[in-house]
Write a structure and sequence with these properties.
Length: 183
Amino acid sequence: MADTDIYNLEFLSLVAKITQEVDNYTGISDKTLAEFVISIHDDSKTLPEFKQKLKDVGANFPESFVENVDRLILNMHPKHKKRPAIDGKENASESGGLDDTEKKKRMFPGLALKDQEWQPSVTKDVLMKEVEVMMSQFEGVAKKTRPRPTEDDARRSDSGSHAHAHTPPPHEIARVLKRKRIR
């Protein structure tokens, strides 16, 4: 008894969601229309068949809307949810006749596409030319740079300003302190 109550509750939730989607698209908030769309989906084995049946009855919904409704029904309809049977195996009649891979293809159509071979966006010749140009630029910059300042130059520039006071390393401090103790 509890299983049928849960089934009915999940089905009512699905009907409410489909009603909301149809209302958002058409402005018609009709529970019977949502149940009709769900019934058409139940009679269809594939997404193209579902789209065709909707067109046959005069529902000219865009493809994106129909695909969204299909995903909602596959996700929310209690008969499409996995329920292990008593022996632990899934019953084919409970899943509505859809095998797991077909259900995943319909729920995630972008992931069901075959992979494409990778094509480099830049050919090796163009890349090598860019590397050669960059290396010549680096060589030109290296020739134009000034020589590095020596330690004497650094001391002369630091002696005039106290903003960059130099703290001697710890071993120098220890040596100075030892001299003061000795005296």
